[in-house]
Records
---
Amino acid sequence: MVNNLRKTDCIVTILVALVAGCSSTTVIDAHVTKPALIDSQDAVVVLGRRSSIEQEIERDFIKCVGKNLSKHAENFYVVPEETFVDGMYPYFENSTAPLDIRDLGKLVKIPEVIQKLQEFKVRYFIWIVGFTERTDENGAMSCAVGPGGGGCFGFATWSDEASYEAHIWDLENLQITAKVSAETQGTSYMPAIFVPIPLLARVQSSACQGMAKQIQTVFR
């Protein structure tokens, strides 16, 4: 009994140490070219860069940034990406969405587009590009099943990296108001003592929250 308790204490100690070490580092950078002028009647929309050539950004990240902006937005409204893209169909689909300010300038000359944008009251587009990827995987894990039961034993680690950049477009003046970048790095762990226990570095979530917080300062 004493030996079993000591083994349990050891396992708990290892897990606590790993949780404490399972952290991430986020670097936020912002370059503001022109103050964002906005009031309670205006809206912004957060969009993932949509292109048939480039890889599309993760929709979860776009939703995360939009939700974080909505929570703290005091002087503007955030239009959900899905609502906006559906309402503007087909102008913001993969093959038709503007890829730069020049393309946006051409798009907003179309009467139907003008009418729909007025209905949404969109003043700013927040275009986001980027990715989250897993790198540097190490360790090993094995699982087995026998007459007395089964389990997994081992230890694995990997590095996670999230890198995103947001371009804030002023629809009224057709200018880039600001650029905000977020880079997060972290290490995740998965010890397995009968059952694998993933201890994840939430790099995408950290990058999302950091980027949203910085974007809020641009609109203030």
---
Amino acid sequence: MNELSDRMIRAAKLDVNLYEEVEADKSTMGQAMTVVVLSSLAAGIGMIGKGGAGGILVGTITALVGWYLWAFLTYYIGTKFLPEPQTKADHGELLRTIGFASSPGVLRILGIIPGLGSLIFLVASIWTLVAMVIAVRQALDYNSTPRAVGVCVIGWIIQMLLFGILFSIFGGGPKPPM
């Protein structure tokens, strides 16, 4: 567990070397998934104030689905629509780096604090987005940070639109966390 917590802290500190390390090491997929689950559970617990006990389940599932959807979209957009000449990546590399980019999302557990929940979710979301840009830049071997920002933002917008459609069809729900 010490290695996992160390990697999560390095990911949250936006350590570029950490993202290179997990991109190259296929054995870190389990750790990356653990980070995503912890971050998703934190989002679910942080949603208790808005959705009660059911908010944990809905928030956790929404966060997990959102992470995978965003990872898939990012991979597809980054490798098919906006690759750089040296871009070479597989889905696993992106899943591992983006998994660790979810590390700041663990802070969403503090969303249970009355009056601060929305602010905490906003800060954790922005921090996660910055980590995601670094993860994408490293996993897709981009030289251009603006290109990585573009890939992440396009993927995020598509994800938000899909969640908006789903929630409008199946009923309300929490805003999808990052």
---
Amino acid sequence: MILHTHVVGDGEETIVFLHTLLQSGVNDFEDQVHYFKNKYKVISPDLRGHGKSISNQFDNYIEQCANDLYETLIMLDERNVHLAGCSLGGLVSIVFAKMFPDMVKTLTVSGVINERPINWEELSKEEKTNAENILKEQQNVAYFDRLHPDNYWRELLESSFVPDWYPFGYTVNLNGIDSPILVMVGEEAKDEVKSAIAYKESSENVKIAILPFAGHMVHEQQSSLYNRVLNTFLDR
């Protein structure tokens, strides 16, 4: 499907930012869009089932999102982009880069892990409980309804709790991606730090940045530092 996209800037090179779960292209990576729009064209899609990209088809979700992004970039005549994503967006970025390596000029990911933790089922149950508690508050439900009008965000959230939803078959390594890769993580996200180090040890093509005073949402918790590191990576 063709994704709804937000486009700003008119630089010669293009950056695509892929948002986290239950956010959208218009409200995630806001600091990054503002920072880079004067130098690059910046594209921020709403992934399938988010924002104005209406869908209730969530089987093989991550791969579907990667295919959606491919169709959307081809439609926009963008065939060589800098790709950056966090969490869900990071997973889609990795899968996209492996499926369509010629489309990716550089890859930047955060908020991902490379292998299934021993306590994965326990973590998944805890995440589901946290989500259910959040949705008990009507103001939270109203927020997501406004962010994803006419969309199926509840079904999407429920689908993410299926045990094999996380694409470990893709994240286990970054083999097959020839473009320069940057993995940025917050020091407080220990499994993500371990994964970044494992990626670095397995490939000379990978640069890593471990940012202080941040966790899973490193692009929000350390937005200025994230922007400077990403800018340095892109310049080199």
